Amino acid sequence: MSKQFPVLYHKRRYTDPDRRRTVPWEILTPFEENAERFHGQSLQRLSERGGLGPGEMIAIIRNDKKWWNLDEEEASWQELERLVEEHEGPPKATELEWLRWFYDNAVVELVIDDVYRLDEMKKMFEKKTGKKLPDGY
Predict the structure, then answer these.
(1) Which end of the chain is more exposed for a tag (fewer CB within 10 A), N or C?
(2) DSSP 3-state assignment of 88?
């Protein structure tokens, strides 16, 4: 797992299990100067102090302070999730998701040695589910 930067939660978000608690550090690294300019502190120091709210992260990445006070707004959370997915790619499927999908979609005539057809099924799975295959497949 890559180095992670903490998401600073405000009081009403502390108990929300659906919100991410960290983002990949690499998302913010190219914008270190903006962090210094907006906060007067390095990303390392901001991380040590608890991180940044999602609106603050977007403001630093976009170099646009209009996002600054939107930490509680759904738009800032959605934008942060979009940036993380753009950085990491689509989520990985679980082994069970892949096996269930394969079982439901496999052609009866599929022969285990038919590598071409298996590769075709893997591509179809990723296209239809929007998820990457689990490791080992």
Answers:
(1) N
(2) helix
Six token digits for residue 74? 């759904």
Any idea which residue has 């071409």 for tokens?
Answer: 116
**87 neighbors 57 (Cβ within 8 angstroms):** no
pLDDT at position 20, please? 80
Mean pLDDT of the chain: 81
Q: How far apart are CA 107 and CA 89, in angstroms?
A: 29
- Select the more confidently predicted residue: 47 or 104: 47
Q: How far is CA 101 from each of CA 49, 104, 136, rounded to the nearest angstrom?
A: 44, 5, 16
Residue 13 banded pLDDT, cuts 50, 70, 90 = very low
Would you list the domain boundaries of the chain? 4-88, 95-129
* pTM of the entire predicted model: 0.63
Cβ-based neighbour number of residue 101 at 10 Å: 17
Contact 97, 131 (CB under 8 A): yes
Q: What is the DSSP letter of 44?
A: H
Cβ–Cβ under 8 Å, residues 110 and 117: yes
